[in-house]
Amino acid sequence: AQFAGRIVAKHYMCLCNGEPLGPASTIGVVTLPLRVTQAAEDTRRVIASEFGKEAQTSYQVVATYSLTAETSLSGGQVFSLLLVRPHTGRMHQIRAHLASIGRSVIADAMYGAQAFRNVEWCSRMFLHCRHVSLHDLAGHEFVVEDSLPEDLSSVLAHLKDRWHEQI
To answer: What pTM was estimated for this model as a whole?
Structure first.
C-alpha cells in the first residue's frame, strides 16, 4: 500500500555515461511517460512514449569523471555519478529514463550504450539502492541506508586513478 500510495522514498546511486549533466550539485528531473513493450518472446523493455504511463525521476550530479578537465567543460563524453530518485514506480524506470536522455547506466545490458554494456572494470550494472524510507505499523518513519558495495566502490577508485574527477 505504501508503494502504491507513493509514500516509500528510494534513492539510488548510479554511474552513467554521456555528455555532462552539469557540475556537482546540479539537479534535474526527467518526466517522460514510460511504456512497457515486448522486446522478445520472454523479454519486456520500457521505452519513453507519449502513450506510456506518467513517470518522474529526479537526479543530482555527485561527481563527473572525464579524460581531462577540458573534456567535461566542452561537453564531451564523461562518466557522471548520480544520486537518483524515482518518484513513480515504473518498471526499469531509472534505467529507461536515463537512457532516454542519452545518459545510460554503465554495464546495463538492456538500456546501456553499446560501448559500455560489458566493460572489464565494472562487472555489473552500476545501480545501487542506498536509501529506503517507509513507515512502520505505528506510522513512524523507518529508514534503511546502505553504502556503496565494495565492487562498485572499486569502479569509482578505478575512474579516480585514470580520469579527471570534478566534485
So the answer is: 0.87
Check if the beta carbon of residue 14 is closer than 8 Å to that of residue 61.
no
C-alpha distances out from residue 17 to 29, 98, 138, 142, Å: 17, 10, 42, 33
Kindly tell me if the per-residue pLDDT of 71 is higher than 70.
no
φ, ψ (nearest 5 deg) of residue 65: -120, 125
Rounded Cα distance, 126 and 112, in Å: 11
